[in-house]
Specification:
This protein is an alpha/beta fold. The protein has helices spanning 13-20, 33-40, 56-73, 86-98, 112-121, 128-132, 134-145, 159-175, and strands at residues 2-6, 27-29, 76-80, 103-109, 150-153. The protein has a five-stranded parallel sheet with strand order 2-3-1-4-5, with helices on both faces. This is AAA family ATPase.
Length: 176
């Protein structure tokens, strides 16, 4: 099974995933961003973009990497990765399902004020990249993202509590 932990940048996907991994039997965290970093290292480079998710090879390689890891090691892959473009999400989730891999889509959510506080409070210089994704996240949440996932509100919740809630969801899904 894949537990895809989605949500905007700064909502706590990486922290939640690290805390979730030991709560699930035979689970591993797969950071799909590393696939994008690998593609960025290709020289001469791929066509210029502001987001490696726009490269079709990123989406295909995420599917194939996840499939290969699960085929080799089994268990559960926890994937903390923001995907805000519906077509990209469909391509990835449909690709995984075509390989017979159940995908459980969780979106971590927090209100905008909480997100801004988290983003501006975590570094001396607030991340303009993370702040720039608040609007696209809100748009995706309104139009498709929240409908395609189980939403877990992280506003005011300690990371360990968020991970425990996601783990409880995973146990329920495993029992189905």
């Amino acid at each position: 099974m894949i537990v895809w932990v989605n949500g905007t940048h700064g909502v706590g996907k990486t922290t939640t995933s690290a805390l979730l991994q030991p709560l699930l039997a035979n689970a591993r965290v797969f950071d799909a961003e590393r696939v994008g970093e690998m593609l960025m290292d290709i020289t001469p480079g791929l066509p210029a973009t502001d987001n490696f998710q726009h490269w079709p090879p990123w989406r295909a390689l995420v599917v194939e990497t996840a499939r290969s890891v699960l085929e080799y090691a089994g268990g559960t892959l926890v994937v903390p990765m923001t995907v805000l473009v519906e077509g990209y999400w469909r391509e990835i989730s449909d690709g995984l399902r075509a390989h017979g891999i159940p995908v459980r889509h969780v979106v971590l959510h927090a209100d905008e004020a909480t997100l801004r506080d988290r983003i501006t409070g975590e570094h001396e210089v607030p991340s303009s990249f993370r702040l720039a994704h608040l609007r696209p996240y809100a748009q995706a949440a309104r139009t498709w993202l929240h409908e395609s996932a189980t939403v877990v509100d992280t506003t005011g919740a300690p990371p360990a509590d968020v991970a425990a809630r996601v783990a409880a969801l995973c146990r329920r899904w495993s029992d189905q």
